[in-house]
Design brief:
Layout: H1 2-22, E1 25-29, E2 32-35, E3 40-42, E4 46-49, H2 51-59, H3 95-98, H4 102-110, E5 127-133, E6 138-143, E7 148-153, E8 158-160, E9 163-165, H5 171-193
Antiparallel strand pairs: 1-2, 2-3, 3-9, 4-8, 5-6, 6-7
């Protein structure tokens, strides 16, 4: 009996691992999309704001029962910056190198160089602020029409897109998943007793 339970658990783990390595974007429901390569969750894109207002908006979000959202980085290594170097150019960089540029990775790796996806119905083919500052007057942004990046005055208006580190699963889905797992364990235990 123990060996069958162990085989069932191993089969589930292998299925989860192979499923997650094949998919880059996972729809968690509630408008939350998990990027299992970058290990961040994307909310739905939102309206245009100045850079300061976009950061305030992202930080004020509570999505999936989780707070602590931010704008995506143009350079993960630099974080919020300031960063005056050259961000990874994802149109020519390797997939691994492109992982340092969250907006570039979304555009070139996840969306294959387009600004359209059924997972993001509000995605616009315009500019999106990054959470990475260039200097005290300018911040980095990414253009989802041309697939280019640059820096602009913080007083400019660009679209906002919030991300969160890790896999944010809306609470009801997590509760349902946990409950269904418990039911499965109880059923297996009952079979064992019979």
């Amino acid at each position: 009996m123990k060996s069958r339970l162990l085989v069932a658990i191993c089969a589930c783990v292998v299925t989860l691992i192979t499923t997650s390595t094949n998919a880059a974007l996972v729809d968690n429901g509630g408008g939350l999309i998990y990027d299992d390569v970058l290990d961040i969750t994307w909310a739905q894109p939102d309206t245009q704001r100045t850079w300061d207002n976009a950061n305030t908006w992202a930080a004020g979000q509570t999505l999936g029962g989780v707070s602590g959202w931010r704008l995506p980085y143009i350079s993960v290594a630099a974080g919020a910056g300031p960063f005056t170097g050259s961000p990874v150019e994802c149109s020519t960089a390797s997939e691994v190198d492109c992982r340092d540029n969250e907006l570039g990775y979304m555009f070139y790796q996840n969306l294959s160089g387009t600004a359209s996806s059924p997972l993001f119905p509000t995605l616009e083919s315009g500019g999106y602020w990054s959470g990475t500052e260039f200097d005290s007057f300018r911040a980095w942004d990414f253009e989802f029409f041309f697939g280019s990046q640059g820096f602009d005055p913080k007083s400019s208006s660009f679209d906002s897109w919030a991300v969160h580190s890790g896999n944010v699963v809306p609470v009801p889905a997590a509760v349902w998943l946990f409950g269904s797992g418990l039911i499965g364990l109880f059923a297996m235990a009952r079979r064992r007793l019979l």
